[in-house]
Amino acid sequence: MNSALLPRFLEALQRLDSIILGKQDALRLALSCLLARGHLLIEDLPGVGKTTLAHALARVLGLKFQRVQFTSDLLPADITGVSIYDRQDGRFRFHPGPIFAQVLLADEINRATPKTQSALLEAMAEHQVTVDGESHPLPRPFYVIATQNPLQQIGAFPLPESQLDRFLMRLELGYPDERAERELLLGQDRRSLLSTQEPVLGIAELLAAQAEVEQVHISPALVDYVQALVAATRNDPSFACGLSPRAALGLIQASRAHAWLIGRNMVIPEDVQTIFPGVAGHRLVQRASGRPDHAAVLRLLAAIAIP
Amino acid sequence: MNLLGQRWQTFIARRHPPASGSLALVHKRIYIVPTRRGLGLGLLLLISLVGAINYQLSLGFFFTFLLAGIAHSALLRTYAALLGLEIAARPAEAVFAGEAAQFPLALSEKKGRERTGITLLSPDGSATRCDVPQRGEARAAIAVAAPRRGRLTLPRSRIECRAPTGWFVAWSYLTLVSECLVYPRPEANPPPLPFGARSGGGGLQAGQGDDDFAGLREYHPGDAPSRIAWRQAARTDTLLAKTFQSPLASQVLLDWEMLAGLDTEARLSRLAAWILRAEAEGHRYALVIPGFSRPLDHGAAHRAACLAALALFPAEGSGA
Amino acid sequence: MKTEQRNALLLTGAVALALAPHLAAQPLWLMALLAALLALRAVQSLTETRALPRWLLLALTVVLIVLVFQAHRSLIGRDGGMALLASLVTLKLFEAQGKTRDSHIVVMLAYFCTGTAFLHSQSPAMFGLVMLDTVAITLAALQLERPQGAPLQQTRLAGRMLLEAVPLAILLFVLFPRLPGPLWHIPVERGARTGLSSDRMEPGQVSQLALDDSVAFRVEFDDQPPPRSVLYWRGPVFDYFDGRRWLPPQRFYVPPRIAPQGPSLRYHITLEPHQQRWLLALDMPTVLPESAQISGRLQVMSAAPVMLRQRYTLASSLTWRIDSDPGLALARQLPAAGNPRTRALAAQWQALPAEERVRAAVAYLRSNGFVYTLEPPLLRSAHSIDEFLFDTRQGFCEHFAGAFTFLMRAAGVPARVVTGYQGGEYNTAGRYLIVRQADAHAWTEVWLDGLGWQRIDPTAAAAPARIESGLARSIPQGDSLPWMLRGDDNWVRLLHLQLDVLVNDWNQWVIGFDARRQRDFLQRLGIGDFLSARYLGWLLGGVALILGGFAFVILRPRRLKLADPAARHYQRFCRKLARRGVVRMPQEGPLDFARRASNALPHLALQIDAITNEYLAIRYGGEQHRRESLRVQVTQFNP
């Protein structure tokens, strides 16, 4: 398959790479996630560039974005918006919140109260916001790119499993390697670099690319493999619960996007293997500790034969 | 139990060490003997052999040996049904004391043989039968009576197979490490729930609580500054205040100390019954027992955590 | 049909099949009763009727026991015991309705019943029936343990189990030590006699056999078989005439000594069971089989009636001389009166020497228009020999033999009637002679001083073709004869002869595999006796090999048979690479593997890439049309 769109996306990737140095794999995964119409959760220590990545993604893709810093006193209405009585009209008028954007950057999502978190996540799931009994549809495309700090901190509310399931993928950035870090230290400030970026793509191209991703071939043999993986997560007693059908569907979608980004018109097991940790990592929590177990996810991937 | 029986028990215990997670049935851990039907077949073979000798029946000999061959063929299949079967313990759902705990097992087949008539026998004699498809998996559970609260471990149980003919029985022992939490038996007719124990009784009125955000209203002088919705006020030129509310449903504090006068088990039993009732009626409840406390909440996870605390509460006289 | 119904019907069918050979040997009423009960059980299982009440079953049991005892005067032994067993199995089948434990007992009893069917016959057909039934019973046993099993799959399993049992059965069949005799004495049961009778001989008796094409016995000669005209197989001898019938010897005496005058001819007879003691031998036997003896009338007698097919070896001399016979007086006996015309005819020859008298009588039969026919007119007169010789002049061999013997005695020459078989059919395919019941014959022996007993066949005088070329050529064309007895070589007949070779081999090597044959066979393997290390080596080695072999086949894990041909080709490709030390991990994707393999074997990188791309396109891209190209590439790939 030789899509006219692909070079544009590769250019976007390149651009992202020039901003976030040395993280090509993570960037590719992030882009796959958006092409698969999934929300993205970026989890890592402070200062490794989570927010920069989220910004850069929105910027390069040419999407309208809003950023909300989640705090413990953030209220649901602060995100969704409120209806306020208008004295001139004599009726309530809806003031849309920051969620009415194409990309919502939810920074430190685990700092908000569960109530606020769930307001956001319900909006993500239903693609609309309901205030005072009135529904307001969200724009399309609509992405939530959330970041969170994995360290258990006082006053943090870790996302419950049911909410985590709404994020298609979870990425970790990790420290940059030596060379990338050196370049980072020598180069100009990332944020200012970011602000000078021009979008590489537009909404129309993103939507067209999503349509092409849908056409990437999935063979029965590949479905067998995905099913084997999913079944293994359900059977492994060390996990509290296995992957949901939604997760399995997401895995296939993201694998499609990953294959598309490589320029292949079919999904092969390697795509699934690349995507799997990102899709499964945050969904599979250890039965004993209740926390995600990434090593177990990789172990599981190594234990399942490709049928 | 006689001496021989004890010897056998120690022999079995030595040969089947506890296995965590899963175990595969290997040949040295599978035993096989003829059943009574098998012995009947043996007698039949003997009679037909004597008959063939006496009547000088060549085909009688052949028939006898053919039956012996069929018996051998059946024996191999009975043995093969267990050989290489992998059994893994799956987490067991907690039960209440007095119920039977179900220890789910997954039997997985990787050798490419269909295995039928696999029977799991718990020590108290209850049996479950299942068939394991070729290169597939079957689920079965071993039921074990759970008379007392606490942790119940899966006792050594037997896995056996008599298929395909019932002439032989092959068996092995499952020594999988698996635990099931046993909650205290809920008291049959507990006294009414101790409502609102913390605030002196009665449900809370709307507008008084501070748990849930209920909406915005215009600012009245006297409203606490922390309640002013500054952000919205800035946008709309109107001073607005946030209102909060607690649900009308009541709050229940389940406190160990309220039940002074009862012995440990009776207290646990009543607390368990109250937790169930509070959950069923949709109340929020908190649990406070020595060494454990849980704030007001409700839902399956809360219930499970509270009941688990009761289940694992140290028994009287255990010194903890 | 519900599974329980199906399984109940299956068990009933298996039992019916097992009982069928036994019922055929039982009195008609018992057979009918048990067959009706089996049919009732079958109907019951189809319609799900309630089980018969216990008291009724008990009553039926008592009734059947009484009836069986009435019929056989015994509840043990072969016939009585089997009748009782058949009754009990049938009733147990009713009791087992819906009960697994009782059904298992029925299964065991059914196995026993089907095995004991060999008491009735060990023919290939019976063998086939028993094997079929063994599969059916095994299937019933499988269904008891797994009632919901798919019938086809279970049947295949039952058949497989039987086939797996065959090697062990053959090994033990050959090697298990056979005893030369029974462990204890078995009561002899009087079965229906077949073939020639040794009770009496009267007109019409042998001609009844003329239409019976069943095999009487088979003969293998050590050397060339003698010509047909001397193949007189000696059976029962009759020397007392009561005016109508010829009766067997009444007195016993020391057999006369036979002085052979020619070379000795060795041969082996496999005799079909005829439930009588006499054995057949070529005139005249000189070397007898073990445990047989010769009677005063030179009949070879076995120690016990021949209940099973029996093979024995003897030797005969075709020419002989006998000097004296202490029983000669008995061969002159005639009733005081009767047949005056015959006596008158004989009286004409009184003056001639003995040989001339014989010749004159033969000449009389040859020249007076006697007709040899299968359908002679009935002899109604009290003077039956007169009637035959002077009025009807049509007869079968017993007419000729009887009349001739009478004529000789009336003429003063000692004579007696000998019955047996004449001729036989040489089966060139198996190089043995088949003698059928239709070859039954009767002839005369006369005593000539200096020569002793010599054979005269009066039938040969009237119909020389009977002796030269057999029955079919010697009777008028209008007489109806079975296919096998007709002279023309039609293909049905040739096929039948081929089939008979198989039957003969079966008889010789399967049924006839007794202690003696086993000894011969083991000696060929170098095994001297059953206590030798060599025997134990063969026995244990063979058993271990067979049992171990099946254990290996059944217990070994099966290689996954991939349904997708593309995956199979790829597997082949991986195996080829594995031989070069590049082993694909089960969880390794094709591209990853190709990368690793190309690094390890850089000179093959192009081929590896091409095959991997082809495979990916087929298996994950759905481009099935490229399968052939993949196959070719993998085949050509030789790392």
From TrEMBL, chain A:
Residues 36-177 form the AAA+ ATPase domain. Pfam families: AAA_3, AAA_lid_2. InterPro entries: AAA+_ATPase, ATPase_AAA-3, CbbQ/NirQ/NorQ/GpvN, ChlI/MoxR_AAA_lid, P-loop_NTPase. Belongs to the MoxR family. It comes from the Bacteria. This is MoxR-like ATPase. SUPFAM superfamilies: P-loop containing nucleoside triphosphate hydrolases. One of its GO terms (molecular function) is ATP hydrolysis activity. Coiled coil: none annotated. The keyword Manganese does not apply. Keywords: ATP-binding, Nucleotide-binding.
TrEMBL record, chain B:
Keywords: Membrane, Transmembrane, Transmembrane helix. This is Uncharacterized conserved protein, DUF58 family, contains vWF domain. It comes from the Bacteria. Residues 197-217 are annotated as: Disordered. The chain crosses the membrane at residues 38-55. The lineage of its organism: Bacteria, Pseudomonadati, Pseudomonadota, Betaproteobacteria, Neisseriales.
TrEMBL record, chain C:
The chain crosses the membrane at residues 55-72, 102-119, 125-145, 157-176, 535-555. Keywords: Hydrolase, Membrane, Protease, Transmembrane, Transmembrane helix. It comes from the Bacteria. SUPFAM superfamilies: Cysteine proteinases. Residues 389-460 form the Transglutaminase-like domain. InterPro entries: Bact_TGase-like (IPR052901), Papain-like_cys_pep_sf (IPR038765), TgpA-like_C (IPR025403), TgpA_N (IPR021878), Transglutaminase-like (IPR002931). One of its GO terms (biological process) is proteolysis. SMART domains: TGc. GO terms for molecular function: peptidase activity. This is Transglutaminase-like enzyme, putative cysteine protease. It comes from Formivibrio citricus.
